[in-house]
Amino acid sequence: MVAQAPGLYRSTKFYDHSEGLSCCFRQWRAGHSHCRLLHGYALAFRFTFATRELDERNWCFDFGGLKPVRRWLHEMFDHTLVVAEDDPERDRLEALGAAGLADIRVLPAVGCEATARFVYLHVSGMVYGETDGRVWLESVEVAEHGGNSALYSPA
Predict the structure, then answer these.
(1) Does the pLDDT at position 8 exceed 70?
(2) What is the mean pLDDT of residues 133-140?
(3) What is the pLDDT, as a whole number, of residue 5?
(4) How many angstroms separate the CA atoms of 90 and 106, rounded?
(5) Which residues contact 55 (CB under 8 A, 6 or more apart)?
(6) Quick one: average pLDDT of 36-59?
(7) How far is CA 35 from CA 32, 41, 112, 133, in A?
(8) Rounded to whole angstroms, how far apart are CA atoms 23 and 115?
(9) Can you state the percent helix, strand and coil of the chain, rounding each to 5?
């Protein structure tokens, strides 16, 4: 009899574009492109969870435990203006918030790749803690629309 290697189970949770995460940002470093201007998308997020051991229900991860994540996504990306902390126009953009014209979020960086990493770092500890390390967040994908997305995983 041949011993089988332990398997890996994965599950995904997807918050699609209809979730209403209409977010505005700009990629100030893209001086050659219209992406340097304020623009927005209805962002979508895909979380991939992994485990070597299913729970007592034979689940990788209980999606009911993601209610705080969904609330946080809405707080961060629903009708907000995301500003990179190193944006040279940060003061002017934050002034829009002070004037009541925008709901500002300052992130370390902007763009799908940076946003995927930011979300990953926020959610991964929660998943690990909620499952006592049995499950880990393998990756986060952020999509601007059906044609563009970026994925972050720690290695």
Answers:
(1) yes
(2) 96
(3) 60
(4) 9
(5) 62, 131, 134
(6) 95
(7) 8, 12, 12, 39
(8) 11
(9) 30, 30, 35
**Cα 31 to Cα 127: distance, rounded to the nearest angstrom:** 38
Domains, the chain, ranges and CATH?
9-145 (3.30.479.10)
- Give the list of residues 6+ apart from residue 117 with CB closer than 8 angstroms, or none: 140, 152
Cβ-Cβ contacts under 8 Å for 143 (sequence gap 6 or more): 17, 43, 44, 45, 46, 112, 149
pLDDT digits (tens, 9 = 90+) for 71-99: 999 999 999 999 999 999 999 999 999 99
- Candidates 52, 85, 49; CA nearest to 69 is 49
Specify whether the CB–CB gap between 40 and 144 falls below 8 A.
no
Round to whole Å and give the CA distance between 94 and 97. 5
Instruction: Please indicate, yes or no, whether the overall pTM of this predicted structure exceeds 0.90.
Output: yes
Per-residue pLDDT, 57: 94
Task: Residue 127: name the closest of 51, 43, 54 by CA.
Answer: 51
